[in-house]
Amino acid sequence: MPQATIAAVNGYALGGGCELAMSCDIRIAAENAVFGQPECGLGILPGFGGTQRLARLIGKGRAKELIFTCDRIDAQEAYRIGLANKVVPAAELMDTCFAMAERILSKGSYAVSLAKLCIETGMDTDLDSGLDMEATNFGLSFATGDKKEGMTAFLEKRAAVLTEF
Questions:
Q1: How far apart are CA 92 and CA 163, in angstroms?
Q2: Residue 39: active-site member
Q3: Residue 110 near residue 143, CB atoms below 8 Å
Q4: Any catalytic annotation for residue 156?
Q5: Which position among 19, 77, 134, 164 bears the catalytic label?
């Protein structure tokens, strides 16, 4: 999916709920959020990306600990280890998510989608290949009207009006 996605986590995100949140680009958690992968306690393992995404987000050792022990962690711990991008009061969760979405939408959507592609693909390849892909996509972004508008707006000291995608 080329668009940026934001998970609003309010309450329990256990098993599939945690896996769904991890499939998003950004995770914003309410203060009352609880994360965990309890599947091993049921005699199964996380089967919808939990073993793969959790390790990529928080590191192999921490992922193994959470998955093997089935421990639950609160929003602050999820933030501390990199599972959550931000923690906010529950009453502010949706406003915070919508505000972030608006900030992202105000940027060049084609550039955001190319950056997402480079990040996602680059995580699964070696650094040199990732850098080559980044350079190629950097060149593609230079061929857009948004690039011209963005650079002109910068020089004119005004906000850019980016419209392509």
A1: 29
A2: yes
A3: no
A4: no
A5: 19
Q: Tell me the one-letter amino acid at 120.
A: E
Q: Is 103 exposed, middle or buried (0-12, 13-18, 19+ CB in 10 A)?
A: exposed
| Alpha carbons 21 and 84: distance in angstroms, whole number | 9
Tell me which long-range contacts 19-23 makes (C-beta under 8 A, separation of at least 24). Answer: 19/46, 19/48, 19/49, 19/50, 19/53, 20/48, 22/49, 22/50, 22/53, 22/54, 22/57, 22/83, 23/49, 23/53
Q: pTM of the full predicted structure? A: 0.90
Confidence class of residue 138 from pLDDT cuts 50, 70 and 90? very high
The pLDDT value given to residue 37 = 98
Given the residues 39, 92, 102, 164, select the one marked as catalytic: 39
CA torsion angle 49 51 55 58 (round to 10)? 80
Tokens of 136: 């190629």
